[in-house]
Amino acid sequence: LAWAAAGGSAFFIFLGILLAISLAVNFDWLFLQFHFVSFSNDFWQLTCPEYNLACLFQPGFFYDATKLLVGATGTEAILVGGAAWTYLWWRRNKARRQAGGGEASEA
After folding, report:
1. What whole-number distance in Å separates Cα of residue 94 and Cα of residue 89?
2. 8 vs 77: CA distance, rounded Å
3. How many CB atoms lie within 10 A of CB 103?
4. What is the pLDDT of residues 31-82, one digit of tens each?
5. pTM
6. Which of 19, 27, 69, 70 is least surrounded, with the fewest CB atoms within 10 Å of its CB?
7. pLDDT at 107
8. Backbone dihedral region of 100: left (phi > 0), alpha (psi from -120 to 50 degrees) or beta?
């Protein structure tokens, strides 16, 4: 389980870095690609004067919400990955000490 948590966290951190670069370079393209992949209809293409929903959520909102989501998920990945790697490191050192190969037995 610890290996899965560490690997999943490392994968998301890599994916999050790619997403952060995409956000910084061209958020509009990423926003459009998300909607093309997620929706099979054109109902998400609303214009502000005709539809109140589009007036409520301006493009800046989606940019800020995406940054917050990527940042919060990245923080979680760092915490879970750090805990998993700490546990794996502790377990490896515990096994070495029990086998007599630890630093304390060499002195």
Report:
1. 9
2. 8
3. 9
4. 888 888 988 887 777 777 777 777 777 778 888 998 899 889 989 999 999 9
5. 0.65
6. 69
7. 46
8. left
The half-sphere exposure of 28 on its side-chain side, counting CA atoms within 13 A, is 1
In the prediction, which pLDDT does 102 show?
53
Q: How big is the CA angle at 55 (ends 49 and 60), to the nearest 5 degrees?
A: 130
CA torsion sign for 46, 50, 56, 61 is positive
**CA 2/CA 83 separation, integer angstroms:** 9
76-95 residue pLDDT tens: 999 999 999 999 899 888 88
| Residue range 16-26: mean pLDDT, rounded | 86
**Contacts of residue 55, Cβ cutoff 8 Å, sequence gap at least 6:** 48, 49
* Residue 66: count of CB within 10 angstroms of its CB: 18
DSSP 26-87: HHHHHHHHHHHHH-SSSTT---TTT-HHHHHS-HHHHHHHHHHHHHHHHHHHHHHHHHHHHH
C-alpha span between 77 and 41 (Å, rounded):
33
- The tokens describing 32, both together, are 């459009």
